[in-house]
């Protein structure tokens, strides 16, 4: 594990989104190596969303149900790590207020993951969704 | 419903170990004593099989498949209706990305949506620059997460599984947003 990267992923938790990231849509260029840094499990969900297309802050928040702190932390760190592309939001459609909820087998699989993470003493990460 | 998670990779990359780590049942494997020095006494010559039961009516089947072309008859047996795919690569074998692309194309090329996660093992022996690998893969049209993993550790195995689930969810999001 790179201690410098780990330090960055753990400490770039600015309370607010970096000014350069405000009013932008985001797209993940490359995934961070979550095998080498300490991460929150919600970062995986957010990175997956960011990997599909340009996504606005409001879309991220609405779909993931993650806190502002978690989203800002991730976006700030991805930007600092040169893993994120941005472009101005042109038409930020107001998304629904209900966060995406898992159903069917996905809900069951997430439940399995939660349980398995919980049994794993080496896991230092936290599972935000459903916590 | 039964869903198929395929784990492909080279000899010694950790397919059998990963499946053993994730499976809730005693895995079915086809290990034999290796006739060559591959850094371990046993090697898989067929399919490894494990399972994660998700309650009534739902399960994820875990299929470990050798990455060598001479086993392509096994690829044909498992490549249909794949839910997701994990490619395990030893860090020292990353020098040949074209071979990886060929292997990836066998399993996910014609699928409607089949998320792929790449786990690089043995990074304690050879360090990797994961962004460089992702760039090479993207130039070939493959956009997949690349993680350093240790197939013996539950944390690593769960990271790959969680990522595949999140990618499926993100695909749902993308479809919903594009329809709106």
TrEMBL record, chain A:
Domain of life per record: Bacteria
Protein name: MarR family transcriptional regulator
Source organism per UniProt: Kangiella aquimarina
From TrEMBL, chain B:
Protein name, as recorded: GTPase
Database matches in SUPFAM superfamilies: P-loop containing nucleoside triphosphate hydrolases (SSF52540)
């Amino acid at each position: 594990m790179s201690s410098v990267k780990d330090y960055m992923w753990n400490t770039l938790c600015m309370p607010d989104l970096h000014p350069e990231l405000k009013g932008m849509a985001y797209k993940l260029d490359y995934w961070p190596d979550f095998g080498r840094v300490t991460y929150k499990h919600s970062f995986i969900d957010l990175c997956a969303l960011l990997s599909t297309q340009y996504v606005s802050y409001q879309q991220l928040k609405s779909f993931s149900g993650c806190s502002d702190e978690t989203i800002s932390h991730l976006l700030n760190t991805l930007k600092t790590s040169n893993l994120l592309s941005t472009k101005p939001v042109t038409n930020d459609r107001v998304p629904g207020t209900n966060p995406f909820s898992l159903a069917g087998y996905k809900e069951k699989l997430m439940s399995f993951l939660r349980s398995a993470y919980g049994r794993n003493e080496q896991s230092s990460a936290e599972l935000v969704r459903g916590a | 419903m039964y869903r198929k998670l395929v784990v492909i990779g080279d000899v010694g990359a950790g397919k059998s170990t990963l499946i053993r780590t994730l499976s809730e049942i005693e895995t079915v494997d086809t290990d034999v004593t290796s006739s060559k020095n591959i850094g371990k006494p046993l090697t898989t010559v067929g399919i490894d099989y494990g399972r994660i039961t998700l309650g009534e009516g739902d399960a994820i089947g875990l299929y470990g498949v050798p990455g060598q072309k001479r086993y392509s008859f096994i690829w044909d047996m498992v490549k249909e209706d794949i839910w997701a795919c994990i490619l395990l690569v030893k860090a020292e074998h990353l020098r040949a990305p074209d071979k990886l692309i060929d292997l990836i194309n066998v399993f996910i090329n014609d699928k409607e949506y089949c998320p792929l996660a790449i786990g690089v093992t043995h990074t304690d022996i050879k360090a990797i620059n994961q962004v460089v690998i992702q760039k090479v893969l993207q130039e070939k049209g493959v956009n997949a997460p690349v993680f350093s993993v240790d197939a013996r550790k539950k944390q690593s195995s769960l990271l790959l599984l969680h990522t595949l689930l999140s990618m499926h969810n993100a695909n749902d999001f993308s479809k919903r947003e594009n329809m709106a």
